Amino acid sequence: MLNRSFQEITHPDDVHASQDFQQELLTTSQSRVYEKRYLCKDGSTLWVRITGTFLRDASGSPWCSVALMYDITKAEARRRGAQGERDALPQDGGR
Fold this sequence. Notes:
Blueprint: H1 6-9, H2 15-26, E1 32-39, E2 45-56, E3 62-71, H3 73-88
Antiparallel strand pairs: 1-2, 2-3
């Protein structure tokens, strides 16, 4: 990972939203939360919830960024499984 950029390991469908997230962080003084997918070396997908913010200097200019990443892969798989089960229910509510 040390030789690759965040864009290179971000799921292709999430690259634009990831760039938007970074831009939003630059324009606000508050932290933001966002979920995205990373591509693993073995080809699997890692879902993460990111809480990010910029630390700013005395003049308010961004000094450095801070991000906390939490692995939500298992929770996302459960959520998608439950959603799939709901989608498979008859449209009339089973009547």
